[in-house]
Amino acid sequence: MKMRLIVTLVGATILMTLASLWMGQQAYTWFPPQASAESELIDDLFSFLTALGTFIFLGVAGTLGYSVLFSRAGRYDYSDGPPIEGNITLEIVWTAIPFALVIWIAAYSYQVYEQMDVRGPMEMVHLHMPATMEAAYAEPMDDSLPDSLPDSPTAGLPSARIAVQAKQWAWIFHYPGENGQDITSTELHLPVDHRIKLELTSDDVLHGLYIPAFRLKQDIIPNKTIDFEFTPTRIGTYRLRDSQYSGTYFAAMQADVVVESPQAYQSWLADAANRAPSPAYNRAAFEYNRAAEQTIVRGWETIPPAPPPIVNFAPKQAPDSPPV
Amino acid sequence: MANLSVEALDGNRAQPYPGAPDNWKRFFSFSTDHKVIGIQYIVTSFIFFLVGGLFAMIIRGELITPEANLVDRTIYNAMFTMHGSVMLFLWTFPVLVGLANYLVPLMIGARDMAFPRLNAAAFWMVPVVGVLMMGSFFVPGGPSQSGWWAYPPVSLQNPTGNLINGQVLWLLAVAISGVSSIMGAVNFVTTIFKMRAPGMTFFRMPAFVWTVLAAQLIQLFGLPALTAGAVMLLLDIVAGTSFFRPENGGNPVLYQHFFWFYSHPAVYVIVLPVFGIFSELFPVYARKPLFGYRVVAVSSLIITGLSGIVWVHHMYASGTPGWMRMLFMFTTMSISVPTGIKVFAWVATAFGGKLRLDTPMLFAMAGVVNFVFAGITGIMLGSVPVDIHVNNTYFVVGHFHYVVYGTVVFGIYAAIYHWFPKMTGRMYYEGLGKVHFWLTWLGTTLNFLPMHPAGLMGMPRRVASYDPEFAFWNVLASLGGFLLGLSTLPFILNMVSSWIQGEKAGNNPWRAIGLEWLISSPPPVENFEHLPIVIAEPYGYGKDEPLVSNLAELAESPG
Amino acid sequence: MTSEASIANQIESGIVEEHNEEANSKFGFWVFLLSESVIFLSFFAGYIVYKTTSTDWLPAGVEGLDTRDPAINTVVLISSSFVIYVAERFLHDKRLWGFRFFLLATMLMGSYFLYGQAVEWRGLEFGLTSGLYGATFYLLTGFHGLHVMTGVLLQTIMFFRSFIPGNYDKSSFGVDATSLFWHFVDVIWIILYGLIYVWQ
Q: Is residue C61 part of a domain?
């Protein structure tokens, strides 16, 4: 009898482990493509958490399901179950194991965070936060985090510095040109495998820079400049979305991110520099200026969107133009 | 004791004695009977649950297609703002206060709450909050459209320029709701500390009372912080100060600290009593004592303590320093230990018992499974690197709906079914209850599970329009949302018709152990003719021991 | 009947029933004050964050606050805590005229504090909208001032209720609570004074 219980438990554990490992592998398919150095780290961490979570979920739900199937009271059975009030050993075990698990998860997360830090973005964020912190963190930013590290895939490549301006409801990207020229675009072009440095600013309210394919996100706070770094690793076109609710046309505040080879990037930049600034298509302004005929119910008064940004480069096919 | 029976006949406590014709008018009066107030809370908040649900269905209707084509964007934004506000301030908070109001005095063997008039006053503020929230639809500019977080500077923007606008009314409503909650919290804490029946020591209190205590303590230390933030926000809007106005040197991130210092613990204010409900129901329907009762009881207070030091996990992407992110990641994850203790205790209670799957138990078990799922996604969100990706996406929306719907609403339904015979003296229809359960379960899964993949793919929350790549998951979620709307119909039908003409239930239809089950259904005014003298721990299933020493005296009907 | 039950019965008839109302009210009032103090703590926390992180803290042309008059105000308010305690003792000994005298003295001292506060506000060259400095100053002193006003109001009610024959014979909860509230207002002021006037 005891033997049978042990075999059942071991069998169940093996099945659950296999299922969890399978789920952990599946987790990778739930994400957009991995397009930055940071995304691999995060996906690995998420896969690990999925596997662990699946195991716990199956354990709890399975035990409850087992009770439902095999411990039901008979129709006319009005007796009580065994008066078991607890089990000290069991209770210690199920306090200690979760405790150890969360320490493990937190330590692993911390490690990933540190690695991301080395490769780019996070620690920069608060550099331009409250004045006192600025002093404390300003030095390490310039010295201890060199553009390229020996073990990083971006070793030896120059970095690109781009200013990101967010406003209700448009993204404008400023590239430094020759002779102090300010090259502007409503599409974010990035050279692949280069360390990217963004300077995030907002004209009005909180916004959030979010590029799902890079797994990166940072709130943008008005009256502050926030440095943000990362390394795109895959050529392609991705979406940039506003992730911090910013008012009426929040959902329309999207832009395309084009990651291209350094040569293509350079020629794009040179081409953009030679174009005369012209108004770009802006979905919020477009919708605002159109009468409310599209919707069934008229809306309330809103903060008017900023006029369409005047930029050197705007994508021919507006990324967020309404369906034709 | 005779003088007390005279007091019991006070006019404003007009609850009939058992057998007397039911006087429904008392539910519309300033009654000070905790049982009347409890039912007033539950029914009022359920009406607002339907209102909030209607908003949710408009949201889901808009999101069934990628374009913003059902309602104007301003209306959509007002919908999700009011959906969140109504569901929290007018449904989950008050309905659980209502359940606690009804049950706590009965469970600890008291004749009423410590401050009955304060109790009634606290309840009657809820309709005022409701009127203000609904009234904000009719002011120029419409209701608040800044989300239920009301983050500045968006919440400071006032397109109409009116002083009386949706945001101001919203802040007033939240402030009144806060006053009501503080009054309730003072009342509950005093009642639990000072009004316990003889022999009702802390470790003889039912787990539900422990969780109510833990939850109300959170209200006491958390709500004032929100009040402080709300006062400053209100001054920014109406008096021209610049606490949170960045253009004048204000600090909008500070508001987020004030807000989340309360609003994260607020989740525990909601979920702790539901944990208590699970702890009450599992022993009854498994016919076994609650496994590890004392640890389960104490773990509630540990959660209270930890809930005060985790708030920054809502702000990982807000521009918080690295050390803060790491610190709060560790504290956040540590909360899973006391909650894990509870989950394992419920599972162990059911294991090897004699399970009876009546509607309350179905809801309770499904609620626990949903909660485990929500807990796992919660740990993922607690991990800073993962959160950097999924913060403010539908993954978060899915996670917390698994908490507030999958766990909390399931627990509330379980509690209402379980104590319905006690509150009304009649039994609900089991068949309709089961239909309700399966519709709710299917709707919940269909509505909230697809939100997780949508979020992982990068769909931000609060969007009125989205890229077509997310359409598949949104269609599923919308269908689930409409199904959840439908699922309330069998519930309402069940409750109304069984209250009117259901079978008489008797004092203890579940053969449950607990003070509330020793007296008549519905209990008389002042509950106990003689106060019970408690001589045993709760949940003595299978032990064949008496709970009180004066059982015969309790049931006497007053002359 | 078991011995446990008989003891419990005594408790029931003796304590639980009649006398509890006042004990409950006192307990409840303590709980309320602890909760109320968190609002002040939140404002203090906000003040500290603003003061330590703000780049231009003082509005243009403002040197800082004069500390002499507020110091007198502080002494008056803190001494009034002792005066109301004396009033409470008189009531405890059922000497109503002594109680009334010292309660009136407390009310006068509280009113003097409010007057002093008003004079200070009028003399300041910055307003509520003068940056974070002005906003936090008026928020903290104003919110505290509201509490002082509430305290004086409560004292007034207690004062007049002492003329109702036999009003305080059964229970002096109202006076106890008023007094407790007054001490609370005082303690908050001491912290506030330290934050705003001492730490400049």
A: yes
